Amino acid sequence: MNISGHALNMAIYFSALLFFAGISFRIAGWLSVPNPLKIPTTPAPLTPAGTVARMLGELLFFRSLWKADKLLWAVGYIFHLSLLLVVLRHLRYFLYPVPESILRFSDIGIYAGFTLAASLLYLLARRLIIDRVAYISNVMDYFYLLLIILISMTGLLMKFFFRPNLIEIKDLMLHAAALDPIAMSAGMSIFFLVHLSMVMLLAALFPFGKLMHAGGVLISPTRAMVNNARRSRHINPWAEKEWDTMLSEADKETGAYMPWSPEQWRDRWKR
């Protein structure tokens, strides 16, 4: 395997490692943060089943965005649905034989590429034109939008104008997915290499920016908490441990929850 082939395979595995390890690290960090109060955004469900239904509404239909901005909801929904269809269409490059269920997305995935690019251009224009949105936008917001736009554009260019050798590409991807990398062909399409490089960059950066809202929405306390503060006492693990240290051995045996004496508090403050 030549040096360029080694570099490409190393970049593929490194970006995949950053993607999966980064997502795991961020979610583990969020789960370790204590929730001292019940803070669901009201009106909120009073039962766990209602909370699950609310979360499904957020995940599948972007319920909160619908209430806030109908046009943004429509464009955002088109973007996410188009991205899903494009990803499903690309699965055929990593599977052999390709399941019939994946082949069904071959045609619609092409049209989704156009709606993906169009929705991204609207989101970019919105950040540039609307003053209040431009005010809260930073460099990375524009960078992510431009990066995904370029990924979609290079993909469409390869589909209609600069067609690469799909057999070589699929062979490369199948071996990479099987952890059996091979050298890339000397005549590999430059458009494909640019397209793949931008996808790897996006995957590597995904866990460390605003794109990670895809995972954060699942464990957001304002959405995932049951609004039952008046019915059930909410105690954090760290608060429970702190309270446990405030009990004397006699209190623990009797089950009585007696507060510390002033002398015990002063002793703790000194430490």
Notes on the structure:
- It is a single chain.
- This protein is an all-alpha fold.
- It has helices spanning 3-31, 48-61, 63-68, 70-90, 100-103, 105-129, 131-135, 139-160, 166-177, 190-205, 213-216, 221-224, 237-245, 249-254, 262-270.
- The chain has 15 helices and no strands.
- It folds into two domains: 3-68 and 138-234, Fumarate Reductase Cytochrome B subunit (Up-down Bundle), CATH 1.20.950; 236-271, no CATH class.
- Helix 8 (139-160) packs antiparallel against helix 10 (190-205).
- The chain starts with a helix and ends with a helix.
- The mean pLDDT is 84.
What is the 3D shape?
A: globular
N- to C-terminal distance: 62 Å
Indicate the proportion of strand residues.
Answer: under 5%
User: Cα-atom Rg, whole angstroms?
Assistant: 25 Å
What structural class do the secondary elements suggest? mainly alpha
Catalogue the unreliable spans: none
By CATH, the architecture of the largest domain is named Up-down Bundle
CATH fold name of the largest domain, please? Answer: Fumarate Reductase Cytochrome B subunit
Helix content: 55-70%
Sheet of most strands:
none
> How confident is the prediction overall: mean pLDDT?
84
CATH class category of the largest domain: Mainly Alpha
Helical run tally: 15
Tally of domains: 2
The helix/strand order is HHHHHHHHHHHHHHH
Number of strands: 0
